[in-house]
Amino acid sequence: MKKIINTPNAPAxxxxxxxxxxxxxxxxxxxxxxxxxxxxxxxLDSISSETEQVMQNLKAVLEAADMTFEHVIKSSxxxxxxxxxxxxxxVYSKYFDAATAPARETVEVAxxxxxxxxxxxxxAVK
Length: 126
Prior knowledge:
It is a single chain. Strand 2 (about 20-25) and strand 3 (about 25-30) form a beta hairpin. About 30% of the residues are buried. This protein has a 6-stranded mixed beta sheet, covered by helices on one side. It is an alpha+beta fold. Helix content is about 20%, strand content about 25%. It is built from 2 helices and 6 strands. Belongs to the RutC family. This is RidA family protein.
């Protein structure tokens, strides 16, 4: 059975999906982009600040499911320009211990929602 996870501490879905779905002990998050939940504005000052906002949004979704980044087993990172990889990775890596970091793929794509530069989704297990 699945449990829908939605929190006011992360951007509300803008389509027919939820922030996350918990089934058993496994949480599947939807992709998060850099929307500031308080203002509703995109955070696009720099690729680092954009990635930081994405990670904070994911943190809020994980917390709504009573999880942390320690529970994450897989991340998918979609970026609009592979030249931004090192800056995105520098922010992303602050949220994980290198020895226990999740599996991950990083893919360059042509476009992302609202034409942002980075979107990240995760799978976590409790």
